[in-house]
Structure formats: structure tokens, C-alpha cells
Protein 1
Amino acid sequence: MAKRSSGGPGGARPVPASVSRREVLRGLSAASLLAAAASGSAVARALAPSRTGPRVVVVGAGAFGAFSALSLLRRGARVTLLDAWGPGNSRASSGGETRVIRGVYGADRIYVEMVARAFDLWRDNERRWKRTLYHRTGAIWLVTGPDDYIRAAMPLLSERGFPFEELTTAEARRRWPQIDYEGVRWVFREERAGYLLARQACAAAVEGFRSEGGEYRETPAEPGPLRGGALSGLRLPDGSALAADAYVFACGPWLPKIFPDLMGGTIQPTRQEVFFFGTPSGDARFSEGMMPVWVDFGPRLFYGIPGNEGRGFKVADDSRGSPFDPTGGDRIASADGLRAAREFLGRRFPAMKGAPLTESRVCQYENTVDHRFILDRHPGAANAWIAGGGSGHGFKMGPAVGERVADLVLGRAPVDPFFALSRLSKTPSGAGRPGSTEAFS
């Protein structure tokens, strides 16, 4: 019989600040109102608070960088956001079509809290931008191996108001008969889980950032020299320099190249392959209306996402791939990777056996040795901050990471030891959670 938890209260949600009509009219002349009416972005800039805060440059417009820039802007900073190829580009760790959003994180309370906050922020930004980026499909974990990781998460999910169910395989088979449950011991279902539109979300965040008064430039940048314990500025390709009061480097897999002495042995980009398969014509069983996000939770973790806005039935192996160059690496999926995905697909979803490959992607994880993020100050520069090490599971938390980074830069919060750079000098290579239970996206 299914065991269900509705979770506890999700915590108080912040009330967004509003601007009354009288305040708008007092602050704007009739002429400026007429000019603002010509453009939605101009209206947003007109209604934005006057910013006299520090000048901050954020390098990298992926999930960590774009939302850090947006959060800094909303806290009154004057922000310039840079990216070499644009938000959600095909080289970026935040590129591609979709990412899973879910709450299971073993006993790591901090991640469950961040996911809870991220859910609220995704919803708030969707309302602001009038766009749907989060698809609530639920997620099922098909438990074929040890289940300590899921069991440890259950009380934390309840505390944060995440509903879940424990299902026998017989119960799961009645709900999702398109799955072959051979080897599955039991099934865990997260109700609020689903998927996010990855590259679209990055583009939306940058659009929102610009509409609220931020400056965005599509250009690479390199850190200048350190002088007196501070970063002196950024060097741009045209030979010019860009100076600010503070700098945030959210450069994903490029962090080891930007800071080789500091990050060279700290983050390892790995090649990860993703496949999309065509579903049978007229068969809705593998669409998001009838199929949730799924995780085959065993010694070798596969996961997948239905629908993907018509891209196909997504299947990915979470095993860490070979080292990968995010700039120059060719992004052609391997025959071995496709063979493994097909074999798994035909075994777990029999009606999909022999399904045609419709698309494939090669992306990368930017792994720290313990698979935790890095959200910390550069040890040699008091005005430079690093936000990276997403390790394959950071995208969903982008908005919550952005808030944390903004509070660090503006001196509103201390560095959390869980995300501190210093911890990595004490962590042996390969440490962290067993398997790949934290990382999949």
C-alpha cells in the first residue's frame, strides 16, 4: 500500500516589493511616462529603484552567473554581465534543452533548503517574465540498489513541505505500466519534481536582467593582475579594460583555465552524453502528461525526461565521462554511449525498444571532488568571488545560488563552509557521496 507524505509547511514566502501608482507618478514626469510606454523594457527601467550601490561585473551568463547578476541588480548594485558566446549556448554547462528539478539530496539539508527556495524563485520569475520554464511532471525513483540516500532525504523533504510517496512495484506498475520493473525493489515518487527549460531559462534570465536595468555584453574577458590583495580589473579582447568594485566569476568549466593555480586541480570538466529518442506514433504513454521524470537508481544511474517540448524521450547515463575541453572539444555522441542508452531504453521501457534516435547532445559536468558547489571569495583578491562547481546538479538551484552570491558580494552573509574553497584542500580525490546520486541533471 502506498505511503504518502504531504510534507509540512514550506515556510513563509517573501512578499515582493511593489510600487504604488502615486509613487510612480511622483517619480516620473509626463514626458518620461510617454517615452516608457513605447517599450516594456523602458517601463521596467523606469520603475526600477535608483541604484547607487557598488559596481559589479559578473563573468558568465549561465544559471549561476545570470541569476547572480539578476540578484545583485535587484539588491541595488550596478551590474555588468559578460559572456563569451551568450546565455545557454551549446558550449555552456547550462545549455541544452532540459534539466531535472527535484528535492532528494540525501542528508544534505542545505541542498534541500536551496531547492525549496529555488522552486519559489522559479515561480516568481515565471510570473515576472510571463513565461513557463518549469514543467511539473513529478519524478519517480526506481530503486534497484541501496536506498539510504533516499531514506535520509525523506524527513528533510517533509520539513520543507515536499509531498512524496513510497510505492510498491505492484502499485507503480498500475500507474505506469509502460515501465518494466524487473530488478526494482520499490519506487519513490516526488510530487513537486519536474524539469526546467535550460537554455531558454538562461536567455530569459538575461532578458529579465537587461529589462530591469542591467548591462549585458557578449564578450570574453580575462582577469587582470592582482594588486594589493585585490583584482585590478578585466582585460577585454580589444585591449580595453573593465573596472568595477567587485567581480564574480561564474565561468563553469572554464574556471580552471581562468585561475589555473587556484582551480586547476579543483574542478574537472567531464564529457556527458544525452540522447533523445522518438516515441511511437500516437502513443502518449511517454509524453509528460502520462510519464514523470524518472531515475533508475542503482549502481549505474540512468535518468530521463519525457516530452522535452517535442525533442523526444530523453535518456542519459550519469556516469562520469572522460576529461573534456569545453572550448575545443567536438560534441558528437559516441557509438558506445548510444549503444548503452539503447540497451537500457529497450530493457526498462519495452515499447521503446528500437526507437529511432532523434537528437543527441554532448555537454559537460564541471565536477568538484566532493560534488559540492564553490561559492567563495578568491583567496588572493578580496574583491573577487567564484561561483562554480555545479557538478551536474547545480542548474535547478541557479536562482537560489544567485541570491547567495549576491549576499556574499554585498557583505550580507558569510561564506558557508559547505561551499568554501578551503574544504577542497582537505577532501581526498573521489570523496563525496557514493555513486552519482547527487549529480544528474
Protein 2
Amino acid sequence: MRAISPCVTCMKEASDKLTTTGESTPVRFPYAEMDDNGIVYLTCDKGHSTAAVHRSRKHQFLFESGCHALLDHYTNEAVSTFSAALERAYEFFLRVAYRKLRLPPSLLDDSWKHVKAQSERQFGAFVFLFPAIAGESFELPQSIPQLRNKVIHRGYMARFDEVEKYAEVIFAIIRRIMHVLSDRCPTEMWAEINDAAEVQRSAVPAGMEWTWVAGTEFDLTVDLTFESWMDELRTQHEGQPE
């Protein structure tokens, strides 16, 4: 997936110039390839090699990637990516819930290896643990597995409008999950986010300039709807190179 990322060195040079001369210098935020750690390594027009560490979780990366696929009208690819985003949101919930229940992360890792390639079992684990944290049951709209299974198992060619609706429902589900975690176990949620971010940061080669980049689609301090998020992303998407 490609993501907007700044050149850290160019940003510092622009900041220093503004401080010393008062002159503002525009800094480009190009699209570049993101790796599985959520890190974008890029070389800007001036030849600076830097890294941007996207301080988001895997479900956020995948959801944004699905949106880009949808905007390019790759509807089936979008369905599979949105589905993967939802599954990673389930995993994120489980990891935070284990912290809340004072269970070591290693215990989840030992159990997860038995279900990591099995979507239905991952969902089952989530469904049974969700009430323990949320105090209410979780009901997955049938439209989600129905379209996913039609696309992935039967080769159904999905229409843009039905995938857009599919994405909107998943967007709402993930935001609900994040709201539950934020309300019921904020300390554990941020501990999970910060620990994962430290693992990301440690993957950047020693000596390389780097910076954090934050996502907003599941930032609960932002009053965001799926429609407004897509409008924002559509503007960014139109600026992507072919």
C-alpha cells in the first residue's frame, strides 16, 4: 500500500529556514510504499533518505488501503481488504482485553497461533470475549459475511455501491470496537498502541532520520463519518501518481 509521508529532513530544513529568515518553504508529502510494519521509507527529490512511522494499527492501514482500492474501482480487492481490516480489529480488541484481564500477551500469542489462519475461529474468540469488556453482546450484520463469502469463495463481481455500503458498515463496527476500548479500558488500549509503536520504531535502521505519522479514521477525538472520511481520502487519492 502507498501512504502520504513527509521527508523528515526537508521538514527540519523548512522549519529552520522559517525560524532564521521568516521565509516559508513548501514541503511535499509524496505517496510512497508502506511495509508490513507500517513504515514508509522514501527518498525525496533532494536525495534525503528518511522514514515515516505510521502510528496506526494494522486494521487502520488495511481499511485505508481498501478505500483506495474502492476509489480505483477495484471492488473485489476492496472487499477482501476491508474484511482483513475487520479481522485485525478483532485481534486488536482481544489484545487489549487480555491486558484488561491481566493476562500476559504471550498467553494470547500461544493461543492465536492456532487460529491465525482461520477467520471464523478468530471471530468466535472475539464474540465470546466482547461481552466481558463491553457488557453487551456483539451482533455482526449478516451483510458482512454474505458479501465477503460471495466475493472470496464464489468469485462474485461486486458493484461499487454495494462495496461502498459494505465499507461503511465495517467502518461503523470498527469505530464501535474502538469506542468500547476507549470507554472501558483506555489505559490498556494505549499501552497496547504504545508497545506496538515501540516495536515499529525499533525497526527503523539506526541513524536514519524518521518521524511519526498519525491516522485519523479511527481517532475517536474526531467527529468523523464514513462519508466525510471518504471525501477527505478522495482528495488525497486524486493527488496520487499513476
Protein 3
Amino acid sequence: MLALRPIVWPIVLALFPSIAVAQHYDPSLLAGLHWRLIGPFRGGRTVGATGVPGQPNVFYIGVNNGGVWKSTDYGRTWRPIFDDQATGSVGALAVAGSDPNVIYVGSGEGLQRPDLSVGDGIYKSTDGGRTWRQLGLQDGQQIPAVIVDPHDANRVFVAVLGHPYGPNAERGVFRSQDGGVTWQKVLYTDENTGAMDVAFDPANPQTVFAVLCHRRPADRPGPAGPHRPRRVGRRARPHVRGGGRRHRRRGVPL
């Protein structure tokens, strides 16, 4: 960390010159800051992690083959809160901004790799992780992204990648407007194309971005290239180059 300081600070000051003009800091004030591992101390891959707005001491992580863990003391200690469920493979998790007791977990790691673990759909907790309920989408097997409307804990979008080694229909982007009681497939291409990611426009949750992927672990990757979303009427139309597709829908009641 000490060796990087002479490089990092000039970059920061170049990007934000007002910092250099308005404030001056003694570099020794930062000498004690360093990265440290806060756990939980286990091997494996972790792709899901989130904090809780307004609760800086609370964190959740979802482990690809280790369930969900929670810390309430700024990461000093962690405890597993998902061990009683039928799967331990987690690809994504999200806490509702309007109700921090509501947590959605997408099972199935969603990483395209030779060895992977699949899941059995979406789970939900309404009591901060003490109890869980399975909400469906079991045949999706891999769920790499879940997002919750920051103003409505019942409005949820899920990116479902689908079976890793074969075709299936339960893939694409799914939406629930009743907290996961029912799901609607709102973006779908075919039985071989799944959804890798989904995100809201930070300024407007009615605008939703999604990334679709047509590839399996044994496939040869297609050529890479830039992708640009395009708005055409009321339907999502992709601008495609290479092997991926990115979609955007805006101004419609998603």
C-alpha cells in the first residue's frame, strides 16, 4: 500500500483538481490504512456480496458453493444463514432498499467454467435471513444476477442463464411484481441463450438493462466486440457485434 501511494495520489488529483486546491493532507495520516482479509475463512469462489443502506455494520455474501453468510459487526465475524436450504450454490443476492429485511437469493453460480455447481431457483427471506422460502424458477439452474426496485421490494428482476450443458426454456430475464409469487418472462431469445446480467438505470428504475449470452462451458467463445443498447418503439432491440447481446427497455411499464 505504501509503495502505491506516490502513483495513486497524482492520478486522483489529476481527475479531481479541486481536491488539491481545497484540501491538503499529510500522507502519514494514511500510513496505517491497509487491506485485510475479514473472512469468512474458506476456499472457493464468491460472486455475490452486498451491504445494507443505512446499516453500515451489516453485510451479506453469497458463495458459489457455500451458501449465504451474514455479518452484523462490520465483517469481524460471519455466520452461515442458508445451510438448511436444498442448495448451497449461490450466484447472486440482493437486499431490498425499501425494506432491508427482504433478501432475494439466486441459486446456481452462473460462472461458465469446466467445473460448476447449479442451483434450484430463487429464494427469499423477509426477516433478514432467519428463514427462507423457495420462489420458483427451479429449472433455470444458474442465476447470476438479481435486482430489486429501490422503491418497491416486490418488484424484482432475475437474470437466468439456464442449463450449463444443454438447452432449456426457463432462461432469459424474468420479472416479478408480487414479491416472487409469480414470474413473467420479459426477455427471451431462444432455448440456447440465457441472461448473464440485469441492472436498473440508477436515475430511473423503469429503465432496465440486460446482457444475454449464447455460450456453454464446452463451446468455443465467439469474437468479442462492443455492444450498444438501442431503443426502438416499445420493444427491446439489441445492437449486436460478436457473440453477445445487450438489451435496454425504457419508458415502458417493466
Protein 4
Amino acid sequence: MRFLIFIFFINFYFSDSQNRCGSEDYRNILIEKGLFVSQKNVSQNIVRSGQYSIPVVFHIIYNNESENISDDQIISQLDVLNSDYNAENDDFINVPDIFINVASSSGIRFCLAQADPSGNVSSGITRTYTDLEFFSMSEDKMKISSEGGVDPWDTEKYLNIWVCDLSGNLLGFATYPGTNPLLDGVVIDYQYLGVLPNNPSPYNLGRTATHEIGHYFGLEHTFYAGCSDWDNCDDTPSITSSTFGCPEFPQESCGSIDMTMNFMDYTNDACMCMFTQCQSDIMLATLAEQRVSLLENSFCFYNSLSSSILKEYIYPNPFYDYIFFENFNLIKNIIVYDYLGEKVYENKFITSSVNLNHLIKGLYFICVNGNCQKVIKD
């Protein structure tokens, strides 16, 4: 009982003291400054065509070593994004039956950008020391090199994610389509990027970035206008206000059952698990109509991570030296990339196994006939 009371007060403290999302306020700031063009209504009649790969650059801005987060933390965030945007997250099974028919995958995947704007090979991660102890959302200094931050890479070709110490207990914020290109992208407080199981905050599973990138692709909060239902989606039930914590299901408001587990609400990371079909359509339409330049590049070398296709054909995973293949006679080529996207192995002369003992321990992507699967070398 004492433990349950402790958990309750931890959740209450964090939900009460943290500012979950600043995107709406930031949009209003940009409107006042004349830096935001009214958001266009996008078509939702989308013909889906497989996977869409988005090159991402993380700008790590730090004043001390705790803010200079590890590559592993960044990779864990990419894993969360790729799972959440493709309905491959483990907690997708928690979608209630009443909403399962509208729960959706967008087909959007994210990779670390493999080349910088000058064409040089890149890890997709920049690291910059700053004299500033924190950054304010209203000043944009994290996005300006001369102000102690980092200038964005070409925002039409890259999704820029700035990671820094945000003031005001703010977890993160994003720009909506229509923002001045010099400011376009997502900002996340360093304490809430990636999966941090030892962090007592209920926002420790990488869902802040999932939520903010939803705004970047044109999504409103599900509670945007309360019972007026102005989030542009008829498959997200109207809800009176934002939801915090992990409420029991069902909750009701506006005459219907609340979709509190939607990524565009404010619940704890562990209690959000889905986008809807309409939300996916809006994101894809935004990508096709307003952010299409993100797709017009070759900055993602492994473009189709499709674990379900390859899981039963590649083993063991994790592996030590050899990877084995079922039905190897059907394989035309094998390419292996490291987690930075650099090609570390290629072979078109296929046998039932491949010796990868020259690779160091870590995360890799093994691609067979154009489909890719994450593997771990122990």
C-alpha cells in the first residue's frame, strides 16, 4: 500500500509540475512575430505506397556532461519513433477493443542522416558545448549558433531535433507546417529524449518526441477544442481537456468514451500507445504536400525496416559470429549497416550463413533483398 501511495504521489508531482508540450503556445508566439504562415488544410484521401524514410539530425547542446547524452540514448529514441509510427510498439496490444479498428500505422520511419548538407559522411548527431545553462522556448536561441545554439541543417531536407536543457519544466515543443524554415523542427529537453528506465519521471519512454513529431506532421492535440472536436479527425472522440497520469479505462466526456491512450493527449508515456487512421492520413498528406522535400534525398541508406518479413528467416538474434538464413536460395543480396548507417558488409554470393566476426558488438541492420531487420552482435 505504501508503495502504491508513493507511485501516486510521484505521478501527481510530475504531472502537476511538468509542462508536457509547448507547441500550441510556440505557434502563437511565431504568429505574433510574423514567422508562421497559416497552416494549410491537407487532403486526407491518401494512397499509401509503403514506407517513408525521414532523415533526422539530432543537435545535442550541452552545458555539462549530463546534458551531453549518449549515442545509445539517441538510438533508443529512434527505436521508439519507428515502433510508434508503425504500430509496432509492444504496448499497441493495450489499445481498447472499441478503438482497435481505427488504430493505425503511418508507415513513416526515421533514420540518422547519413550525410550533412555539404555531402560529407555524417553520424546524424552534432554535439555543441554552450555557455548557456538553459534555453527558453520564446527566444529560439537553441536554433541559432551565434546565440549559443546550433543553426539547423536544411529544414526542407532534414528533420532537425534540438536536445538541450529547456527552462520552465518544459518537456518539448515542435513547429507546425508553415513555420519559418530557419526555425522549423523539434526541441526536446535532454531529460526526456529516449528510453530512460531509471528516470522516475513518467515521461521516460521516448513518447515526448513521438508526440512532438506528430505536431511537426500537422497533428493537433486530441483535446484541442474540447467538445467542439476541432482536431480535424472524426475518429478521435471529442474530449473536454487534456489527460494526465494513467487513468483507468473507460473515461467519458463530451458524450463519448475518451481516447486517452492517443499519442496526441498528455498521459504518461507508459499509457499512450496509438495513432488513428485519420491522424496517419494527415501526417502522410502533410509529408506529401508540405514536407515532401524530406523524401527527395538519399540520406537514409536503409529505407525499409521490415522486421515481420525477416524475423523467421534470420537467426540467431542476438548473434556472435555467424548469421544463418532459411531459404537462402531465394536471397539475391545481403547488406549490413551499422547503427550510423555506414555499410559494413555486402555479399551477392549467398550461402546458408554469413561470417560477421569482424564486427564489433552493437546494433546493426541486416538487409536481405531490400528488406531490413535490426540485429544485435554480442
